[in-house]
Structure formats: structure tokens, C-alpha cells
Design goal:
heterodimer; A: 166 residues; mainly alpha; 6 helices; B: Helix Hairpins; NAD (chain B); transport (chain B); transmembrane helix (chain B); NADH_UbQ_OxRdtase_chain4L/K (chain B); membrane (chain B)
Chain lengths: 166, 100
């Protein structure tokens, strides 16, 4: 049952990810990426992380992709549609990608650390409560640092995108 | 239950696809979207390891990755808007100098 759902979500997410890379029109890429994020959030639900699934939908699909679509609307993408890939020899990049993929797959299949089929311990109880206690108690300083990073990014984005005076 | 290696392999496949988008595509917007795909595949790994080794830190790191991604996208799209206003191009190989 779980395996069937996993295979379904994984297949759709891989297909939509390929659509992101191969589509001619950036709008199609953005919509395919939205579908891919939805599949990944379904996979988070399968992994027993419903909070992360909701955050994924809110932040990625709700905020980031809408931001992308707004920028696509603001700028003229028609001239960039004509040529999908970088001109010239892409052979080194392709070789690098194939090497990377083969290496990671071989390492994952070769090692016996990744072959466990069951979680070592199923946690009972209120998982979101425990997660937030850990986040706000043990990881308070990184949490504050992340909020400062978000503030700096907000100010930086406004300054960068503003029209220069005069 | 689904074995852990399946999740890792899904992460690997999404990572390679995202890296292909970053390395091969010509459109800056699609390069940024592929970057999102890369970070998302890493999140799958974090949460899968956290689940299978019964450790919250996977989910916590995934939350931090998502926050950092949001900041990165905001700054990148701001730079992109400023770039298009100055140079009116979306091709990565047209933007090879930082000044002018």
C-alpha cells in the first residue's frame, strides 16, 4: 500500500521534474515545478512529517512559485523561449552529470546502511509538539539566525528591485 | 513499509535532474527553478533519514533549508528584475560580466 503510493508520487515527481528542465516556456516550467512540489509534499506525508508537508505547500507552492510567476509576468520571456539549452559543447556537463548520478546510485545500492526497511523506532504521541519543543528550545539560536536572514533578504530584495532614483 | 533506499534514490534522481537544469539550461528563470529542485531533493533526504533513524533533527534542518530557500529566491528574483531592467536579457551566457 505504502509502496504503491510511494511509486506513484515518485513517478509523477520525476516526470514533472523532467518537464521543468525540458519545457520550452518558463511558465510551463513553473507550473510543472508546482506539481513536483505537491508530489514531494505528499512524500513528506508518507514519511510521517505532516508539518513539513504543509510548510512545503505554503512556502514553495504558495509563496515561491507565485513569486516566480509574478516575475515571469513582469519581464518579457518571449525571446528566451527560442533556445532551450546552452549553445556549444555540453559534453563536459553531461559527463559530469552522468558520473554524479552513477556514483550516487552505486554508493546507495552498495552500502548496507541504506537498506533498512523499517524505522528503528516508531514514535508515539504528539509529534508536532515534540518537534516544536526541540525547535524552540535546542535550536533557538539557529531559529533566530534564520529570522535575521529572512529580514536581510527582505530588505535586500526591496533595495535591489527598486528603481534607482534620478 | 518503503525501504529507506527508495527515498534516497528518489532524492538522487531529482538532484541529478535539477543539476542538469542548472548546468544546461539557458534561461535564468529555469536555472533558478532547477535550484529549487536541488534543495527540495536534499530535503527529501533529510526527512527520510530523520524518519528512519527516529531523529527530529532531519525535520528541523529541512525547516531551515526551506527558510534559507525563501530568502535566496527573494534576493535572486530581485537581482533578476534589476538585471532585466538594465540589460533586457534572460540568457545566462549573456551575463558574464558583473559590471556594466
Amino acid at each position: 500500500m505504502d509502496q504503491g503510493f510511494f511509486l506513484l508520487f515518485a513517478a509523477v515527481s520525476v516526470i514533472t521534474a523532467l518537464t521543468v528542465v525540458l519545457a520550452r516556456n518558463p511558465v510551463h516550467s513553473a507550473l510543472a515545478l508546482m506539481a513536483c512540489f505537491l508530489q514531494v509534499s505528499a512524500i513528506f506525508v508518507l514519511l510521517g512529517a505532516p508539518l513539513l508537508a504543509v510548510i512545503q505547500i505554503f512556502v514553495y507552492v504558495g509563496a515561491i512559485m507565485v513569486l516566480f510567476l509574478f516575475v515571469i509576468m513582469m519581464i518579457d520571456v518571449r525571446e528566451a523561449v527560442l533556445q532551450r539549452f546552452l549553445p556549444g559543447g555540453n559534453l563536459p556537463a553531461l559527463v559530469l552529470l552522468v558520473l554524479l548520478g552513477v556514483e550516487m546510485v552505486v554508493l546507495v545500492l552498495w552500502s548496507d546502511r541504506f537498506s533498512i526497511a523499517e524505522p528503528v523506532a516508531i514514535r508515539g504521541g504528539d509529534e508536532v509538539r515534540e518537534l516544536s519543543t526541540t525547535l524552540f528550545a535546542d535550536y533557538l539560536l539557529p531559529f533566530e539566525a534564520a529570522s535575521v536572514i529572512l529580514l536581510a533578504a527582505l530588505v535586500g530584495a526591496i533595495v535591489l528591485a527598486r528603481k534607482e532614483p534620478g | 513499509m518503503v525501504p529507506l533506499s527508495w527515498y534516497i534514490l528518489l532524492g538522487v534522481v531529482l538532484f541529478v535532474i535539477g543539476a542538469a537544469g542548472v548546468l544546461l539550461r539557458r534561461n535564468i528563470l529555469v536555472v533558478l527553478m532547477s535550484l529549487e529542485l536541488l534543495l527540495n531533493s536534499v530535503n527529501i533526504n533529510f526527512i527520510a533519514f530523520g524518519r528512519y533513524y527516529a531523529d527530529f533533527r532531519g525535520q528541523i534542518f529541512a525547516i531551515f533549508v526551506i527558510a534559507t530557500t525563501a530568502a535566496e529566491v527573494a534576493v535572486a528574483l530581485g537581482i533578476l528584475v534589476a538585471l532585466v531592467r538594465n540589460k533586457a536579457t534572460l540568457k545566462v551566457d549573456d551575463v558574464t560580466v558583473m559590471k556594466g
